[in-house]
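Lab notes, practical 5.
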Amino acid sequence: MIDPNDVTDPARTPAGLEEFLLFCVVVAGKNADQQAAKLERFLGGRRPFAHIRSSDREGLLEARLREVRLGKYALLCRSFRELAHSGADLGSCTWEELTRFPGIGIKTAKFFVLHSRPAEMHGVLDTHVLAWMREHWEGAGRGGPRVPGHSPQEPRAYRFWETVYFGMVAARRHGGAVDWAKFDLDLWRERRGSGEPA
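Output from the prediction step:
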């Protein structure tokens, strides 16, 4: 089972990568602990993509998703089905390649790569990061653009705010090395008591 408090693992097995990617898809905008437990019930200890393919062949994929109440059933059926049949190498594919699948936007793809590979540098512009940025960014007070309330969907806007985030974190570290996965997870742990979804 995925532990939302400890998602970083650059040594996942192929099955572990499949499970983590499915977690990344189902957790967007939802309670991480609840979605992790529901995904665990859906998988039942089976190899994730093999279980999805088998469920799909039997015509039971949506019913099994509904049985554990994962939500967003039409989207998850499409996403799970396409991922399970893709043959994608989850250990080396780019975040851009992942965004070609339903239910995987820039934020979700970067979250997966950041927390499943060593020494990656990605800004996961989720609610916790954006709220932290709003609290600490001085640009808005001087007539600069306002930090968005939701993760940007347009790649150029995402890259702009990701660059702002990198600069803010680096300034607080006074130029020291940043473990981006650790910083992201620490920030999420700190803010999760605020009621913000993952």
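Observations recorded by the TA: Residues 155-172 form the longest helix (18 residues). The mean pLDDT is 91.
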